[in-house]
Every structure is written in C-alpha cells, then in structure tokens.
Write a structure and sequence with these properties.
The protein is α/β, with parallel strands linked by helices and 179 residues long. The chain contains six helices and six strands, in the order E-H-E-H-H-E-E-H-E-H-E-H. The termini are close together.
Length: 179
Amino acid sequence: MSKHVLVISTSPRKGGNSDTLADQFVRGAQQAGNQVEKVTLYDKTIGFCKGCLACQTTQRCVIHDDAETIAQKMLTADVIAFATPIYYYGMCGQMKTMLDRANPLFPADYQFRDIYLLAAAAEEEEHTVDGAVTGLQGWIDCFEKARLAGIVFAGDVTTVGEIQNHPALKQAYELGKHV
C-alpha cells in the first residue's frame, strides 16, 4: 500500500550532507511506490514559536509563514523523515524551530505514525547523534500514535559533498525503501 511520505530537510546548506541523506531516503521511498514530497527549510521563512498556545484551540498558528504550511503537510503525512546536521551534539536550530512550530498538530487528528531521523556530523562517534535523537523523541512522545521508526547517522562528514560514498547513503536509501 502506497504511503504519503514527507521528508523535511532542515539543513541551512543546500546540497549539504544531511540534505544528501534526505535525497537518498526520498529515492528509496519513491522506488518502493510511495508518494513522496521533500521540503527544504534553507529557503523558507520560519519564525520562532511565541508560546501563545492559540493553536491548541484553532489548530492553526497565529504566525503566517512557511512553518504553518509545512505543519499542515505534516498533519496529513503517513511517514515523516527529518534530516538534520548535528550542531553541538544536537539537531540544528532550524529543525528545533520547525518542531516547536508544529504545535498546532498536538490536538489534531494527525495521520503520521512512523518518524525517521537522518543526521550527519563532523564527529564520527555513534553517541554524536544522541542529543538529536533525544530531542526528536521528546517531540514524538507528545503524539501517542507516532514512533521513532529508524535512524541513519553519517559521521565524519563536514564540508558539502564529503558524504559521497559514505555507507549511510545506502542505509538512508534502504530505510526509505522500507517505510
């Protein structure tokens, strides 16, 4: 059965290493016959959450920018994959801001069940991604029907393009094929 897959590439760098992981996940999910949409944040305007909680009543954000549109795409996706560079052992600020701005989804009848994390970092130790996993898991824990379904981590990549031939690219592709 075909799924609606939303891939959110949160990197501030177009064509960055985590963005390349996202592309491989997209390729795998498409080849498996899924309907896939990739959204990039590097070219979007996304303001910080104001904490007003109006969205808990209206299921819409009072800030009308690109995050509002992306949150509505998240609402109707069966699968969401987040791709992020690891900054200071955590997700990038763009990803955290997008998660915060997805607050209107909390009281909604959201469709997503499986959430994936695709991450790239200069450091190569496996624990490097733990902070991002903890942050994303905290968001997922607020959605009782959702689960963290898989993680791909590409370590020891810094400059754009350095990820070429990294084994994580194949892992991201295979994960996408099996959503």
